[in-house]
Amino acid sequence: MAELKEARVPDIGGYDDVPVIEVLVAVGDTVAKDQGLITLESDKATMEVPAPFAGVVKELKVKIGDALSEGSVVAVIEATDSDTAAAAKPADKAAPAAASAAAPVVANDPKVEPVAPAARPDNIAQASIAASPAVSASEAAPMGAGLPPVRFDADALLPGKVPYASPAVRLFARELGVDLAQVTGSARGGRIGKEDVQNYIKHTLQSGGGAAVAAGGGGGGGGLNLLPWPKVDFAKFGEIEVKPLARIKKISGANLARNWAMIPHVTQHDDADITELEALRVALNKENAASDKSGAGIKLTMLAFIMKACVAGLQKFPDFNSSLDAAGENLTLKKYFHIGFAADTPNGLVVPVIRDVDKKGVIDIARESSELAKKARDGKLGPAEMSGGCFSISSLGGIGGTAFTPIVNAPEVAILGVSKSATKPVWDGKQFAPRLILPLSLSYDHRVIDGASAARFTAYLAQLLGDMRRVLL
Ligand code: COA
Fold first, then answer.
1. Which CATH superfamily is domain 163-242 in?
2. Does the pTM exceed 0.70?
3. Beta strands in 124-246 (DSSP E)
4. Taking residues 424-434, what's their average pLDDT?
């Protein structure tokens, strides 16, 4: 006789108020014993809550976002007489071993034993309180050891409604934005494994698709289908203070996030020997300090020389002075040379732009960059002073570091990071000589620039900075 019974959250290892992230069944669905009803995800583990008995779902008591603890009612199920439909299936001697390999989960014992977070590379522990029927019927119940093993048939038990996959695979698919309903499982009984998800992505990308694997393309920028941001009650762990982000940080943060997500970045590192250039800079600064000519009082910065070298690089490699359109189909090549430089201000990062750097000398560039940097720090930069850039430079050389990976400032296609120069022993063919070495880090949009071009560009920059007379060539 059919009987209405409540399916409740079993012992989930002491976790409380764990959010529901997936509801795996709908009212009217026929479920097998141990079939997943919902998925719970704490910050440490993902767990499926199984149906404790077979039957028809009459009422769902939870929705996504609800926080559940042990004993919370998940659904009301009209229980059928037999516990699992699987028990009626014919025997298959190979089933136990195969099922246990495919579903290393706890069976019949609803207590959760979460895996230590460190055991997974993504630091999200996986635990399942759902056993596949094959495991529960044949392997994990020692009482049934004398019974013939039961073959699991996903089609019969999970009639196309719930993709048959472990919580780990579900999480993997969710992280990649893959709809598991589209994936064919290759393991016994139609179980979907990690390789099936990977093969599905490969196939979708090769066939020019991408809608199902919801990653942003060269176009709109949306559709990343990322997991929600982790919500943590930090106050539970210690004293905290909430500080709103400055307006500039909020704006630049949104731009940086888009650029990081949309542009396939690669960073090429190289070293420039600036021993002679630094000596020249120091000498010119001494002269300028003593003279009453146009450069008087202007401190020549390394940044000004680097800007000049970059323009020569852009002239030699025009693809670096371009922008890719939103469809990812056409490059706009620019015949002007406006260079942006990242300026650190108390309110965050801004990028003032110096126009027509190709037509200016290093003294003018140094004067202008120092004026713009001051305006930036005083919060007085106008929008016109931050627009029209072709290429950006981010110099952390005044602070420190040996290399970093700057984020391309879209719609530009490359950005040069500059770290702190240091005197290093360099082999000159006969001996080690102390040389002043400037580390360069060029990040570029790999859709536009290939690795060989980037290596040539940075090598050329290093050559120019090694001997600025080459800029005249
Ligand atoms: N290696 C060694 N020393 C360097 C150097 C380098 N690559 N670049 C600058 N310096 C030295 C300068 O010579 C100067 O030394 P001095 O005072 O003895 O003459 C000192 O560092 C400070 O230079 P700085 O004031 O930073 O001048 P600058 O022209 O090099 O840089 C700005 C100007 C605006 C770029 C800089 O002030 C700034 O804001 N940098 C931060 C950029 C940033 O935040 N980028 C991150 C983006 S992700």
1. E3-binding domain (4.10.320.10)
2. no
3. 125-126
4. 97
